[in-house]
Design a protein that fits this description.
Chain lengths: ~210, ~210, ~210, ~210
DNA sequence: TATGAATGAGGTTTCATTCAT
DNA sequence: CATGAATGAAACCTCATTCAT
């Protein structure tokens, strides 16, 4: 549970909660998070300002994190292509699949993740620990992948390597997926698919190259 | 010239300008950029709010970008170790030097770059084009480095590879250098030096591994 | 009956009423009346906000007056020392007994009387006429006392004198008993017992001194 | 200086301050202090809400205390009948003069003193210590008066007696002068002049009657 | 040119009160 | 009857910006 949100037991409560987070989703598609006021969100949601404060103690940020959590869970629930880390396909391919998975997640609702990512940096104190679990799960996937290809990987410290790869994937994709329109955007960078492929190749090259 | 700042030719003007940006530097060490009001900055700088508006049309953001530009130039002026991309030392070593250079730049005043980085994402419209030049210069360095080691690099499209490496370096170091205290901070990640080394190894592995 | 309260004949209703006024009593021991919201009182009482409105039309003030009335009645029911205004003890002693009685009443629950006294001044329109009866009864006691000592009293207009004494007693004791911690609190004033004695002596001196 | 108010050095500032406190004076004549909002006061004063916050940190209460202080000073500055505590006129007369002085002070702007008196009890933490000085000065006058009539006064502890008289005068007059329309208002009480006379007689009787 | 008092729009937040369940 | 989620008016307060001095 994101910090600041309350359980919604009654049917009416649940409906209000959903109206609020869906309204925030809609608003984030058209404007910046910090241009949105509680009053405006309330209007879009068709509820009163007071309802937002009752349900999400602390104002808009808890609403954002709740929305974010909702989207993550929604995707987690979908029957999606689990990465098959079998030796059959090879490390390079598996990394590309992983890259595609992260990329797909971010692309599903970049407006939400963008706002959450920025606010998490702007107001680090307000983040709950739902994120911790996400990170752990991401880290564990990469450990599994690395462990599945002992013959290809040449790094000595496998946990450290997994952490580097997880960090690299998340950081680079977030930057490009969420802020492509407002960051340096280095000329010469390949687009979407090529980019994901190259990012996977960074990790691949790193893992298969021996340390000196 | 960043959008919003005015030339300060006169001596008195220059002094006011310096008082203002140095005051912002001091405030950024102790609090978030968006917790700083024009009045507060004016007090810290020992000038009036009106003076800030006279010198930096547009409020605080132009002051921030001016401060940022000032810090970048200050560092550029320093007689610092230019990377010697001679074949003698090898690609891997040169990449490590480049990593150290980026890392050093960020570490010199993280509070300034952090604020600038966030505001650039929050208010993309307010950024001038001073950044463009920075990016170009960074991109060109990596092109030079890659061009200096034709025997080691196995990538086909060298410009694209240079863009990927530049993007990778900047993104990953910014994330870790500026937001270490407020981001996932993946457990298992090596610290400072080890991290910079591994980041360089990502680029190295990428460049020397043939595409399939 | 204080304006705004409803008869609570049924057993369940009576229980709700008691829960509410006892909750208010508890809250008044720890915070100011106007810092207490309906919702807070409802929580403390273990009932819903709606129940407070059902039982006490008009919100919190009727609850306060009901509580006050309850405390006054509770004390009136107690088998307490009735003042024996017999000539045997003398006017001065009887006045001291009267002073002690008023003082004792106020001291029994100053937090309740303090809130009621302030709200009566803040919202004079909301007071019922229960008070009228109290005043009359107080006034009558002093008339009786004065009438019992025709030889000592030198005032011409005995009703006026009784009104002055009643006014004096009530005013001075309320000020000192309820607001000692937040009023001028004149340095040099005697404490509790000495104060009550001196107040009685004011009345005594007034009554036995001839007009000019 | 009342807590929460700022010095007003500039001419413009002084004008704003005066507009604000005079507006509060006008509003207090027609409605309760706590029915007045900052916005309403700003409108009445012809200034912006922001100006009130700038000049009186803490909102309306500091404005009230400043107004009160202003009225007290204004009266203190007036060339008024100083009480001549010479033995020539006698203790009884001097006490009546003192009563008339207190009564006159309160009557000069009861709406202001009423609000201040209530708020001082409602928010004791917000009062500055300007009051302390007033009390001291009042206390000292009564000490002087008592000292001037050693032959008439029969009390043993003269400081205690002075404190009692000061307390008595202030308390009783405040109650009757400021809240006559909303307090018990005991039937049978004499009006204005008679009341002030009788109050003085309480003190007189007290002082000249020997303790037992 | 620098000042800083004043502005006032607009955000945040509370809470008495209602009414569907 | 009791409940308590929802309401929404209205208060509070801030702060970027202006402009008379």
């Amino acid at each position: 549970m994101s910090k600041g949100s309350k359980p919604a037991v009654q049917k009416r409560s649940r409906k209000t909660r959903d109206q609020i987070i869906e309204a925030l989703d809609r608003l984030l598609r058209i404007k910046e998070f910090d241009q949105i006021s509680v009053t405006e969100l309330a209007e879009e949601a068709g509820v009163s300002p007071g309802s937002i404060y009752r349900r999400f103690e602390g104002g808009l940020i808890p609403v954002l994190f709740e929305l974010c959590r909702d989207r993550i869970e929604r995707r987690a629930d979908e029957p999606q292509a689990q990465i098959d880390a079998s030796a059959a396909v090879g490390l390079r391919v598996v990394l590309r699949l992983a890259a595609a998975a992260v990329w797909g997640q971010l692309s599903s609702c970049p407006h939400v993740y963008r706002a959450a990512h920025l606010q998490a940096r702007l107001r680090p104190d307000l983040i709950g620990d739902a994120w911790k679990a996400l990170e752990d799960s991401s880290l564990q996937s990469f450990r599994d992948i690395i462990a599945a290809f002992p013959d290809e990987v040449r790094r000595r410290d496998l946990d450290r390597a997994a952490a580097m790869v997880a960090y690299h994937f998340n950081t680079v994709f977030i930057e490009r997926g969420l802020f492509a329109d407002r960051s340096p955007n280095w000329r010469g960078l390949p687009d979407s698919d090529g980019f994901a492929r190259d990012v996977a190749d960074f990790a691949y090259g790193f893992l298969i190259t021996a340390e000196d």
